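Lecture notes, unit on protein representations.

Consider one protein chain, 253 amino acids long.
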Amino acid sequence: MPARFTDRTVLVTGAGTGLGRAVALAFAAEGAKVVVSGRSAATLDETALLIEALGGTAAVVTADVSRAEDTRRLVRETVETFGGLDVAVNNAGVFRGGASAADFPLEDWHTLLDTNVTGVLHSLQAEIAHMRAHGGGAIVNVSSNLGPHVRIPGVFGYQVSKAAVSAMTRAAALDHIAEGVRINAVSPGASESAMSLRPGETEAERAVRMKDESPLGRISTASEVAAAVLYLASEDAGSVVGADLVIDGGVSA
């Protein structure tokens, strides 16, 4: 496969672990200069070292997307480090579950909205401000199949927050495509991430559970989710605008 992102600058939030790390590594493998961001410098440093071990180029910028000033600084430091911003992947998110709508703790509600919804808005605003002034770019928001595409009991707040990400993606895509900023989303289901493990569940137990819960019979791999992100960010998806690509093995089909 040709390197689709050679000399492109890519920013990935929530890149210290899980899907964010896999996405950052995938972009680096296709020639991108990658800025990895999140709240923990230690895990971000690990991601950067993995990229550099593969011969890629990475920089670390710590930021909390729930703070607008952090996202503005993140984009500014990305541009200062690598000279621009071509692609952004808004992956940072948190999970809070285990309660119905009537019993959902307000503290958890505010945490979910601050990071999963307002955090995506902060990121979009900072990224679009740069991109529309410099010839455009591509943005991929990471949502979830839970909320926009399928609902289950006991995951009220998380599902609401991710439904908002899907709606925000579509609305922002229409607002900014004429300015050359192309915005889409991916909605993974259970995947190669700690977030898909139930409390106390092992990976082996999850694999057994998914044989019954997924038509595909397994979780999605991190590389499968990353491949979808890279497609949406690439010129191959040049006419894909406001899409929400579900990657869940048929759970929401």
